[in-house]
């Protein structure tokens, strides 16, 4: 309507043909876009061609406007082209081809319009052409900046979407994991509560069998707890491994001996090859190596209904020097497919929805085992195919070691102590205090109990104890500060203090020793380990 109104004037009769040309170009563009939506790869060039044709038709108006000789006509033509360039800049959305197709005709008209108008002697034309060149430069810079911004935004959106999907999957896996752990905990808890209840009532007979049931349930709970603690340490970057001399053949044979009975009960053959080629002594972390091997053997026996489980050992030279120990555990079980293999070492996950229901377990064992393998400088890999068993290969550096000196045996009674030492137990949890009291009284010790650090200071100010068992994490005055105050003054300034704690990392033990503690017992403790530590510290105190 605007073009029709202006085009009635003879001087602006070019407006109507220009409007019809633009409408025709827009019609072609609409057809190309419709075809593009149905088949994008095939019609992308047609769309770019239609965009270019529309830009040629639309920008042509600047030439006759400039040729009118009116200042407003020249200004209008320049504004028309500048606005079209800005529109092309926004519409391209970072695409170089789209920007070139829509902006190039307008930028070309920007230079051609004053030249085609025949105003060669006008001084202002030269200034206009210089300004047009600067505009091209600025437009190119703005396009480059906007392209980087748009690409970064797209990558951020894509990454955010991936993170969202991963977070949803992780939340789902953790929810399933929590439900599974709750189920796993109920089994040993039921055994403990039932057995302890019958012992307390004195019913059912056979207290030894009930005690064994409680002990087995405790072992199950401790294994679950150890998996959770190991994973939390690994995720927090606090897990550490040691390097000491040990016999790999003795370690592997002891571990196989432990699993041989279970394999025999399932009718499986447990084979071991390659042991003769092992060096007598190597350096490494035997505790963590045994943990990984136990997990691999446990899984192999658990998931193999019939056939055999093989442990194969080999030694190879490293390119940078030294030896590599390769330990492969192969079974004849059902194996797993590519999808299961991809998430085999994922924490909180298991091979299928029915795995936890059928076999139990936390789904953490393989994830922890691979992380431990890498902490030790090696790796843990897996290969399998559905229906043809699984094969796990553990590779570890095996630097040459030396035979460690034989430790001197502890000269201590098997069941108790020759005299009646006085021991103070400091723990903020009543169950822990009662448990330690029963164990220590069974050793023949005289036991006093303190529920916090302040009470322990009061008791220590009145009585001289032979040893103090100190919880580390307590509200108010914790175990470290309590020990420091004991070491400052009083009757128990030189009394051995034993930390009873679940935090047994190198930094935790160093903090305990710095506070003045002589030794430690890891929670949940074993009775034999507690007895050995008490014997050691009491003998050292007596010798001093």
From TrEMBL:
InterPro entries: CheY-like_superfamily (IPR011006), HATPase_C_sf (IPR036890), HATPase_dom (IPR003594), His_kinase_dom (IPR005467), HisK_dim/P_dom (IPR003661), HisK_dim/P_sf (IPR036097), Sig_transdc_His_kin-like_C (IPR004358), Sig_transdc_resp-reg_receiver (IPR001789)
GO molecular function, a single term: phosphorelay sensor kinase activity
Keyword Transmembrane: yes
Domain Response regulatory, chain residue ranges per copy: 422-538
Residues in Histidine kinase domain copies: 180-400
UniProt keyword list: Kinase, Membrane, Phosphoprotein, Transferase, Transmembrane, Transmembrane helix, Two-component regulatory system
Enzyme Commission number: 2.7.13.3
Record PTM 4-aspartylphosphate, positions in chain: 471
Gene3D superfamilies named among the record's database cross-references: 1.10.287.130, 3.40.50.2300, Histidine kinase-like ATPase, C-terminal domain
A family per Pfam: Response_reg
Protein origin, superkingdom: Bacteria
Catalyzed reactions: ATP + protein L-histidine = ADP + protein N-phospho-L-histidine
Enzyme class: transferase
Transmembrane spans: 15-36, 43-63, 69-90, 97-117, 123-145
Protein's recorded name: histidine kinase
Organism from which the protein derives: Caulobacter endophyticus
